[in-house]
Amino acid sequence: MSKVPRNFRLLEELEKGEKGFGPESCSYGLADSDDITMTKWNGTILGPPHSNHENRIYSLSIECGPNYPDSPPKVTFISKINLPCVNQTTGEVQTDFHTLRDWKRAYTMETLLLDLRKEMATPANKKLRQPKEGETF
Amino acid sequence: MASLPKRIIKETEKLVSDPVPGITAEPHDDNLRYFQVTIEGPEQSPYEDGVFKLELFLPDDYPMEAPKVRFLTKIYHPNIDRLGRICLDVLKTNWSPALQIRTVLLSIQALLASPNPNDPLANDVAEDWIKNEEGAKAKAREWTKLYAKKKPE
């Protein structure tokens, strides 16, 4: 398999995100549709059922640097959330979160959003007390 | 890295030894399927005197699948969107393995010479082009000066 360069990889992800081919539980798109470098993205995660996140929609910002997808993106929750892998002051997803720590080139923004959603639903995390809905970091 | 198909090696050699006038294409050292491209704006077009940077990638299935090409320089053109994506039949439905990198780049140069606002990718630009062609061309010239200026030799 040849290595798809960063920009063409991001165009593929953009197309998938725009056409809504991805799963219904998360979405993502360019933050600025004029940004030819495709660095800043918005993401949303629909809180998983049977958890304290049920029916909530979480907004995130995702930054794909020049070394993406060789290096993972930087992900920050905009909506306030109580999760061990999220810095409670900045909202940033900590780099030791397993998907970021064990990042592989084949991973996408979608992988990351879905893994964060799974993290919300783990037995240890699903009953964590959550801030009032609508608050932001 | 997987070895590069003979066809790609041949095409690359020819692009370097016998370049197309007004077009350069060079593979990146660390990825020989990924090319850095420049296209000079055609004479008598609003893009005249501009040099546009593009990137081109040959996917695994090339030449069964078309190359992927995108503008890196901002350009005001009805068939090129704000992210530099190009609407061109030979890159999509009219691709044939008989075409080459060279022919694709020539087609893009021809698209600069004759925009096609009736098959738009950038809808707002196409509308402008149809309603007020002179104004749209003036804006294209302005953007060429702003973003695609030739570097002094």
From TrEMBL, chain A:
Gene3D superfamilies, alphabetized: Ubiquitin Conjugating Enzyme (3.10.110.10)
Annotated coiled-coil segments of the chain: none
Pfam families recorded: UQ_con
InterPro entries in the cross-refs: UBC, UBQ-conjugating_enzyme/RWD
Annotated ranges, domain UBC core: 5-137
Stored SUPFAM superfamilies: UBC-like
PANTHER family linked: UBIQUITIN-CONJUGATING ENZYME E2
Name used for this protein in its record: UBC core domain-containing protein
Organism: Saccharomyces uvarum (Yeast)
Primary gene name: SUVZ07G1600
Automatic annotation (TrEMBL), chain B:
InterPro entries named among the record's database cross-references: UBC, UBQ-conjugating_AS, UBQ-conjugating_enzyme/RWD
Keywords: ATP-binding, Nucleotide-binding, Transferase, Ubl conjugation pathway
UniProt keyword annotation of Nucleotide-binding present: yes
Active site: C87
Pfam families assigned to the protein according to its UniProt record, in alphabetical order: UQ_con
EC number: 2.3.2.23
Entry keyword annotation includes Nucleotide-binding: yes
Domain UBC core: from-to ranges: 3-149
Gene Ontology MF, one: ubiquitin conjugating enzyme activity
Family indicated by similarity: Belongs to the ubiquitin-conjugating enzyme family.
PANTHER family cross-referenced by the UniProt entry: UBIQUITIN-CONJUGATING ENZYME E2
Listed name of the protein: E2 ubiquitin-conjugating enzyme
Organism: Saccharomyces uvarum (Yeast)
Gene that encodes the chain: SUVC02G2230
